[in-house]
Amino acid sequence: MYTLDIFTLEQNQSKKGDSVTLKSAAVPVLAFCALCLMFSCENFPYKPTEFVAPKVPPPPNAFVPKDSITKFVGNPNATVKLAYTLTSTGSSQTVYFVNFNDSVVEPREIKKDNTRSDWDAWCPILSPNGALVTYYLRSGTQAELYCQALDTGATPILIGSGSEPHFYKDNQGLYITYTDANGIMLIGTSTTLTGYHTYKQRVDPATGQTIGSPALIASYPFYCGMSTNGTYICTGYSSAYIYNCSTSLFFAINPGQQTCNPSMTPDSVFTGRMMFLNIGGHEQLNQLPPEDTGKVGQHKFVFIADTNNTYITGFDITMLPAYASGEWQCPKWTNIPDVFCVLATKSSLTYDCFLVSISTGHTLLLNVKPALLQFQSSSKPYVYIGGN
């Protein structure tokens, strides 16, 4: 530590008869002290940097324990994983995943292509073995598909230009199906859905690397995945259809009504079924139950219908009494036929994530402390349930 005895300095100066004033004598000493202090600092020389707010994921206890999920699905040995997107303040939309089998259950962020860090990530889907994630990045009318290992350090692998990816597996290998419509919500009937296509790209099931070139599935854009036997694909929004890839036949679903978030069944028996969210109005499905034939409010029902446009079952938001005045968002079949994942809201700003059993109507809240983790209307959650 450096000190200056001003009184002693003044006495010495006066005894010697020096004309130097106390002020002029103290300046060099003070300057010397300041220099010593400055060079002793760790960050000298100082360089100003821009402040960047850190991304802080929700704490681990935001999620339901794994045992609750395995009990819900009736498989105590199940491996359970969740993928979704979230937009942090001041950043673009990013994919997160949760492995409920980890000792510490917490959200982990997927690495983006470093040249596309400002593009928004959409619609993450996990592979049939739970090892890979596919999604797309979008900026304006540009969209690119990616696949990578489900790991925070995994390198994104560019699949190509396109959007709305889903995994499909057959005896030949693992594929990613996608459309080249780049996330555009097309308007019109089947005869006007031209100019866009649906493809499948084979990938390595361990790494996600592409194998060969993409193959054409249909000369139309289908957003919502392929049935397990490869026969059907489906699409929705302004017009909803199930399409037979072998016969090229269209099956109109809920004609004349807009639908949201279509999803193809993973069932290996009832393969020609799709799930969707209603927009509103009088639903145009065959054999609707009496209580559902009236005008249904927007996003109040999740419907399942088949290729005959026949109503199979539906889920009214009022099945969750605390959310009865709110709405559903982003229903998506998991990889098992009896369970789907969906968001529900009490307001228009924040959403909670549920698993729903189709056979029983039972529900399970995944973010058990919603104040710690609120999903967004664009989070598009997907749940993988694997294991023997």
Question: Any descriptors?
Answer:
3 helices, 25 strands, single chain, mainly beta, 388 residues, disordered N terminus, four-stranded antiparallel β-sheet
The shape, in one word, is: globular
As laid out across the biggest beta sheet, the strand order is: 3-2-1-25
Radius of gyration: 30 Å
**Derived structural class:** mainly beta
Q: What share of residues is helical? A: under 10%
SSE order, one letter for each helix or strand: HHHEEEEEEEEEEEEEEEEEEEEEEEEE
Q: Please outline the major beta sheet.
A: 4 strands, antiparallel
- Tell me the β content: 35-45%
Q: Could you walk me through the main structural features you see in this protein, from its secondary elements to its overall organization?
A:
This protein has about 400 residues and is mainly β. The protein has a domain at about 1-50. It contains 3 helices and 25 strands. It has helices at about 5-15, 20-40, 65-75, and strands spanning about 80-85, 95-100, 110, 120-125, 130-140, 140-150, 155-160, 165-170, 175-180, 200-205, 215-220, 230-235, 240-245, 250-255, 260-265, 275-280, 280, 295, 300-305, 310-315, 325-335, 340-345, 350-355, 365, 380-385. The strands form 7 sheets. The protein has a 4-stranded antiparallel sheet, covered by helices on one side. A 4-stranded antiparallel sheet has the order 4-5-6-7, with no helix packed on it. The radius of gyration is 30 Å and the shape is globular. The N and C termini lie far apart (about 70 Å). Mean pLDDT is about 85; it is low at about 1-25 and about 35-50.
